[in-house]
Write a structure and sequence with these properties.
By secondary structure, the chain is of the alpha/beta class. It has a domain of 274 residues: FAD/NAD(P)-binding domain (3-Layer(bba) Sandwich). The strands form 7 sheets. Strands 1, 2, 11, 12, 13, 14 and 24 form a 7-stranded mixed sheet that branches. Strands 8-18-19-20-17-23 form a 6-stranded antiparallel sheet. The protein has a 3-stranded antiparallel sheet with strand order 3-5-4.
Length: 636
Amino acid sequence: MSEEHVSPLDQSPSEDEFDFVIVGSGAGGGPLAANLALAGHSVLLLEAGDDHRCPYYSVPIMQAFASEDSDMRWNFYVRHWSDDLTQRQDTKYVKEQDGVLYPRGSTLGGSTAVSAMVTIYPHPGDWEGLAQLTGDPSWGAEPMRERFRRLERWRGVNALPLPGDTEADRDRKAAHGDNGWLGTTRADPKVGGRDPIFLDIIGAMEQTSRERFGIPGETPLPRDPNAVDTPPDYQGLAFIPVAVADGQRNGSRERVLDVQRRHPDRLAVRLNALATKVLLDGDRAVGVEYLVGERLYGAAPSGDVGCAASHDVSPRPIPAEAEPQRRVARARREVILAGGAFNTPQLLKLSGIGPKDELERLDIDVLVDAPGVGENLHDRYEVSVNCQLDRDYPIFAGATLDVPSDLSASDGLFAEWRDDRDGPFATNGSLAAIIAKSSAGTDDSDLIVFSLPIDFHGYYPGYAKDGGRRHDQLTIVVLKAHTNNRAGSVTLRSTDPRDTPYINFRYFEEGSPGHEQDVRGVVDGIDIAREVVRHLSEDVDRELVPGDGAIDPEDLATFVREQAWGHHACGTAKIGTSDDPTAVLDKDFRVRGVPNLRVVDASVFPDIPGLFIASAVYLVSEKASEAILSEHGVVT
């Protein structure tokens, strides 16, 4: 198998004026660019990374390696705590970077290129809350569900029918979309049956679900979290839908490539293009200034290489320090920022749109005093329960759990994916999940507890390689959704657009009210994970993390405060009402006070939606497409 590495996207039109200029090709910007081009508009999509292609991108189970591939990642280092003593208790803290690794995507497709591909539809209440906030019923649960149906191309093995239902009843109630652009599936149930320990783990999670939530034996498990008839307060075993099509990752990148191939005259993609400023004529956005060059941004890894060097794709040399070429792209209609929760507020502030005091300290001309830009940063909380088994997984015998340097090698699991796009490598590695409600008092289920047959306890340099180093590890990850903290912020370090911003989430006690419930909810998840482990007593040798010393609730609370992490940052340019001075956007994603400028990415959420954020951002992109086209029309 060979991996292409020459991109057709560099053959962009030479014109520097377009109907729309979009910054960022992730879950927000990529599908939006495609939709506008399909509607007949000329669109320029600026991506600060390249279009890097290698097995780490394509092979679903290699998602951790993708997030550590230097050709596909930005290395942000974030603070969880302002207090140095507390921050240093985190074993993932990197002193030299004064923070904890927070990898983001730096390639075509943005962070959808390096994510775990989990595609779980948000709760209906998340959308109803936005509909109520904005007074716009098109934000409601049913319109958003219809948008999900339109983008989904479901090819998974469906959940078994509930008692009394036929398969036709099941399909009608699930109401999956099957003709959309985003391929979704689940791990083939046959994969779990290929290893006796996998079966034990899945069985322990099912037993925990039935005992804890009173699920009778005649109710088949797992259930489908994306089925319309799965209630938002469902508790029990669930499979994990993922953005995998025909055994390969798919997402924003594939959407962009497909539309660009079909309409090269409408959709131009410029790679290695770092946006530095939104250009304004008076208060109106008219274009984007950007720099051209590889690895220009300060979050780019320096000096190392990704899978390119070891998998026969010629690595690009790191350019010598030089003044990069500066260019301007003008927008006849609108500029749209989709750089994500870190880069969008940075670009707004560099353009003079942000908190007056912060901009004036850096001698940036204040065009719009927008105190909410960079504020309201929040995330979910995650921890893991890690165990050592009493033996290796039989299925991993002879496997490296990595892509071999020689792609024709006979590593059995990789060869199965290479030849048939099938087997364990066609999954994202998750075995099963339990969805549950914590004692934090939420109406919807706010916990997902899922098992991985590797070592994973958060993000730090080298975490991907460490994860598969041993073949006798079990990780049960606890993710707490619907968190309360809204006190994080993204602030400028300097006026240099190549510099990363200062990112501080201000966890728990340093955050906003409700931190006690957040901690308690995560501790509840640890209790569920440990119950699964108790049902695996014949397989588990010992618990490694949190460890036998962390027993009572206060010990576990301390563990959560010190070791929690997240990877769904959002909220830094939130939607809100005109009487909210911290609301950056109106209901149609327009930046208040700046005509012809919108934001379409994870920044827009006033409150973090659902359990995983990618599907929510895809839906925001679809919603924004409709809003923009309702104003500017379809020209084909």
